[in-house]
Amino acid sequence: MLVGCDGALSIVDPAGPAARSIALLWWVMLVGGVLIFGLVMVLIALSFRKRAACEDDAGSARLWIVKLGIAFPVTVLLALLAYGLVIGEQLLPRESGETVIVRAEARQWAWNFSYDDLPGRTTQDVLHIPAGRPVDISITSTDVIHSFWVPRLAGKLDAIPGHVNTLRIEADRPGTYQGLSAEFSGSGYDRFTFQVIAHDETGWQAFLTGETE
Amino acid sequence: MKALERHREFSRIWASAPGFKGLFSTVNHTDLGRMFLVTAFFFFIVGGILAMLIRAQLATPHSAFAEPDLYNQIFTMHGTIMMFLFAIPTFEGLAVYLLPKLLGTRDLAFPRLTAYGYWCYVFGGGMLLFSMLFGIAPDSGWFMYPPLTGAISSPGINTDFWLIGITFVEISAIAAAVEITVSILKFRAPGMSLARMPIFAWYALVTALMILTGFPPLILGSILLEVERAFGLPFFQAEFGGDSLLWQHLFWLFGHPEVYIIFLPAAGVISTVLPVMCRTTLLGYGWIVAAAVALAFLSFGLWVHHMFTTGIPHMGLAFFSAASTLVAVPTGVQIFAWIGTMWKGRPDLRLPMLHILGFFVTFVIGGLTGVMVAVVPFDWQAHDTAFVTAHLHYVLFGGFVFPILAGLYYWLPHFTGRQRFFYLGEAAFALIFTGFHVTFLAMHWVGLLGQRRRISTYMPEDGWTTINLISSIGGFILAIGIAMVLIEVILHMLTSRRSPRNPWSAGTLEWAMIIPPAPYNFASLPHVTSREPFTDDPELAVRLASGEGYLGRPNDLRETLTVEITSGKPDYHVIYPTNTHLPIIMAAVTGTFFLSLLLKAYWCIPIAVIGVAALAWRWVWVLGRKQDLPVQDIGHGIELPNASTVEHSPGWWGSLFLLVANATFFGSLLFGFAFLWTVAPGWPPPAWFDASAVELALGTTGAMVGAAAIRRARRANALRQPPLAWLGLCFAGTLTVAIAAAAITLRVPAPVEHAYAATLLVLGSYALFHASLGMLMVAFLVSRTALGFTSAARKTEFPVVQLWIDYLGVIAILVFLVVHLTGWLS
Ligand code: HEM
Ligand SMILES: [Cu+2]
Ligand SMILES: [Cu+2]
To answer: Where is the Cytochrome oxidase subunit I profile domain (chain B) (predicted)?
Structure first.
């Protein structure tokens, strides 16, 4: 359990394309980070060796500062930035015919979801989506700032009064996923959670025709 | 005169009043530095106890220890105390204590201001402590996002304690920053050019400049939010043309630089202590200075990385993500320069060095996780989880607490004149190091498993129980380590083993004096020819004590000298004010102002304002003289003019940097206006300002007449003609500005109905405030002149007033243009 990755709210147990690419990003960064950390620690440890003092300040400045201090991080960071930008680009909500559109409105301490495909129907604290199809959530708030977050499906996006933000989520498989409001909102914040139910094709049709409770 | 006799004479001149009571009237930087440090350490303990409560609460699921309402106060106060009442004041205290000693001089530029800043800190911190003891402490998290902190969601007084108390404490940060900047630029030993300054001074300079430009946005935000709460002006309410995102921008425009304001002084400690521990000199001094300056600039371009989840457009995200990752480069330069320093020398595992190693391990991890959260997609997941809490503690604890502990053990013999006797410190380090990493490594992981920050409890099903328990155990190990440091420091002060002078064989000037230091620091000021004067001349301490340097003759005045900024050539001679209760009284009256706001006793505000103005008048008045001072002989055949006869006195420099902060405040206000106009929903406003060409012309002319007249007054004074008529004209011009500004405040459309009108009201009030201040200053100069306190030689107050009148002119004209043009354009 202690070192496990699974969990209903785990970022590293992804169940959708967005969360998966971010989880991969995390593992890549973790490995890279451990390597860099190891390198720095080895360099520090080696300085304790017994050896003749080095008097060539200009030479060591070139090595330590120009090569290790500037060239090395610039290279690593540029690569990482490019990787991050590519992923960020992929996660953007782009136009596509089969996108489902949902409006999510937060208040202290409940979420109301309404569906463009099913005018007039709203659900509270339970969001219904079809599995395997991209869903765009238009997020806003009527009182304070909240944040819409389903860790196993995608990153979070804030619900801000007067603004509407759009987040793309998608679940690979039908199932129930836990969602959280992830911006501190006062005394009811602990229990401010919701559920996402991803339906298979028949389940979704049933929901759209109003058969699902 | 013998060295001992000289010591007695100087001690008599410079000493604070004896005993405990002396603390209330002291203006001595050594005393005040110690007081700052002790108070800050006290707040560290308070913040630490709150941290223990947090970890106790989170140790088990379904914790019944604290209800959410209480828990919210606990974590908010923990963060607030650590950031505002521990970290920043620790920097201030360290800088106040060390700088004059490192720079080879006798005190800071404005001794009374140091004391005023200290008392503002104590009173403001006291307000927050009071709120905590009575269970009405702030409870919305240390960054106080509205609308949660607005009057509707948080009607209680809790939020007001934060907004008002922290603004009060920030006065002390601004005061210290002005003080530190001017001291470093002007108050150094002769010969100490900028390139010969000890590295800590560079870091302190950069930090102080960052405080001057980083704090004003938060001060502005706090004022706007408090005004919204108290009077209903809707700056952050979307339905009335405000926007809660404006707060986030203002807060993080402060909040990100704040992290570097905390880190840079600590890096200054590392750069000072590390080479001594390695028996060598710092590798790449110039590079390190450049890296610190680069960090300062970059850090103002990163704030949006705290807002990656607020729906910023994609291009903006890419820009701020790039800037945030690239800030790792100057940090890398410093880290590798330090490691290179270790390679260059022979590192010794003495206690300060252990903490430096603790710093390396912790801070490098914090930096790496920092780069991770700077990558936008990852931040969308990690934001507002325990992962971020863990990251920020790796940076703050690693980047601040470990270096400060290194510094504490390094300078402890200097503070007390004693040697370490009980070797608890090594065990304490082991506990702190292990405890810290157990606590916070675990929190990274539980964050990845979805634990949000700021929750007061969780369920067993969440699967976080074991990790949280481990984290809490680590927290308590850490706490035991900190307690041992405290015990050791107390024992240290009680034991009597005297330390040898310069126990670490350091080369900087703070060790070239008796320890604990005498109130005057140096019996005579050194002539500096390198970065490590004490290494070059091991006899330096003795020679200074026997009066071989500058200003070695006691003559009943607290004297020092200033230097030209870059070259370090002696510039002019300065006489300091002596012990006084003025600072503490002034701080108390300032506190009355804030208290009246807090308690909504608005009738008391004018009284407090008049009180502050009267005290400020007296503050400056007592520095005057009725006779010209001749040039002063400082020894070694050098004669210097006195500060009262120069163009750019310390007061002028202080005003200049205060105005830098002020201009940042004004700029943030204009930014806020533009932001609301372009981004906020709910525009256009229901009613526009009714622009008036007459008022615009009148106000603008008044501003220009004021600026021209003060110049003529200054010239007249220099030519020995009476300047009073010109001063009168200047007063009239300033008065006209005040009238035009007052007209704006009276004529804006209903400010509670829309953020547009509310912002105009603030702009008008800002101009009105500065015009009143200008009038006060001109009136002061008139009294001075009329009573014979100025002369062609004693001219130094004219340029100071001119600076403020010029500033008034610029901001007033901008305000008039902005206000009236928005009326016409619409
Ligand atoms: C003494 C050891 C410390 C421990 C065990 C500790 C523990 C914690 C914990 C568990 C939280 C998370 C509260 C929550 O999300 O519910 C927290 C928050 C925080 N801590 Fe610490 N902390 C320590 C020292 C520090 C220091 C030295 C600083 C700064 C210089 C600091 C600054 C903060 C800040 C800014 C927050 C965020 C508060 C908020 O969310 O509003 N902490 N701390
Ligand atoms: Cu957030
Ligand atoms: Cu930041």
So the answer is: 8-529
Domain C-terminal end among B614, B635, B665: B665
Closest by CA to A13, choosing from A165, A171, A146, is A171
Sort out which chain B residues have CB atoms less than 8 A from A145's CB and list them: 145, 147-148, 244
At B185-243, the pLDDT tens digits run: 999 999 999 999 999 999 999 999 999 999 999 999 999 999 999 999 999 999 999 99
**Does B148 share its domain with B231?**
yes
Quick check: ipTM above 0.90?
A: yes
Ligand 1 contact, B475 CB (< 6 A): yes
CB-based contact B31:B444 (threshold 8 Å): no
User: Which residues from B are below 8 Å from A21, CB to CB?
Assistant: 377
How many domains does the structure of chain B reveal? 2
Prediction pTM value: 0.95
Residue B744 in domain = yes
* DSSP H or E stretch at residue A60: helix A57-61
Pair (B731, B783) in one structural domain: yes
Q: Is B331 in the pocket of ligand 1 (CB under 6 A)?
A: no
The finding on whether B101 has its CB within 6 A of some atom of ligand 1 is: no
Find the helix packing angle between B111-133 and B582-598, rounded to 10°: 40
Q: Is residue B638 one of the residues assigned to a domain? A: yes
- What average pLDDT does range B73-100 have in this prediction? 96
The residue of chain B nearest to residue A164, with distances taken between CA atoms, is B311
| Domain A100-208 = CATH 2.40.40.20 | no
Question: Are residue B99 and residue B195 in the same domain, yes or no?
Answer: yes
CA-based nearest residue in chain B for residue A24? B378
Task: Assess if residue B151 is contained within a domain.
Answer: yes
Locate B278 and state its tokens.
Answer: 């390695």
Rounded CA separation B192/B464 (Å): 57
Same domain, B588 and B707: no
Q: Is residue B321, in this structure, part of any structural domain at all? A: no
Torsion sign across C-alpha atoms B264, B269, B271, B274: negative
Q: Which of the ligands is closest to the CA of residue B385?
A: 1
Pairwise CB contact (< 8 Å): B311 & A157: yes
Residue B315 tokens read as 């291009």
User: B192 is in which domain, residue-wise?
Assistant: 31-273+554-665
